[in-house]
Amino acid sequence: MSRAQGLLRIMTGLLFMEHGGQKLFAIPPANPPIATVALGTMFGISGILELFGGFAIVLGFLTRPVAFLLCGEMAVAYFTSHAPRGFWPLVNHGELAVLYCFVYLFFAVAGAGSFSVDHVLARRSAPRSE
């Protein structure tokens, strides 16, 4: 389970970083092209959270608090951008925000799993029995 959890965390973080990179640097480029956002705006702050939070998730560094923060970001994104367009996530194009929200809620509760800085740090700080 821990290895699958680690792989899910890494892929989720990598995909999430793309959203931040696209907002902040237009990388990867969208089709049709979109303009980058100003850092002080709600979209700019979300881009920062997505790029750097996604990177922390990929590394598995401070996974629980970062995932909790990103879960909240996705809930805010859903209710401010998608829900006003209709009730059903498939219709209001919010299914990805809902999915990210619940995947990050899972990591906030369950932790990073294998292949993570958190896992290495936990093993180092565990008392050794002799």
Q: Can you tell me the residue ranges where pLDDT is under 50 for at least 5 consecutive residues?
A: none
Order of helices and strands: HHHHHH
In angstroms, what is the radius of gyration?
Answer: 16 Å
Helix residue percentage: over 70%
Number of helices: 6
Structural class: mainly alpha
Overall geometric form: globular
Count of strand segments: 0
Distance between the termini: 28 Å
For the sheet with most strands, the description reads: none
Mean pLDDT: 93
**Count of the domains:** 1
Strand content: under 5%
List the helices and strands and how they pair.
Blueprint: H1 2-25, H2 42-59, H3 63-82, H4 89-92, H5 95-110, H6 117-125
Helix pairs in contact: 1-2, 2-3, 3-5
Describe this structure in words.
The protein has one domain. The chain is mostly helical and 130 residues long. The protein contains 6 helices and no strands. α1 runs antiparallel to α2, α2 runs antiparallel to α3 and α3 packs antiparallel against α5. Helices cover 70% and strands 0% of the residues. It is globular and about 55 Å long. The mean pLDDT is 93. The protein starts with a helix and ends in a 5-residue tail after the last helix.
Give a short synopsis of this structure.
The chain has helices spanning 2-25, 42-59, 63-82, 89-92, 95-110, 117-125. With 130 residues, the chain is mainly α.
Task: List its salient traits.
130 residues; mainly alpha; 6 helices
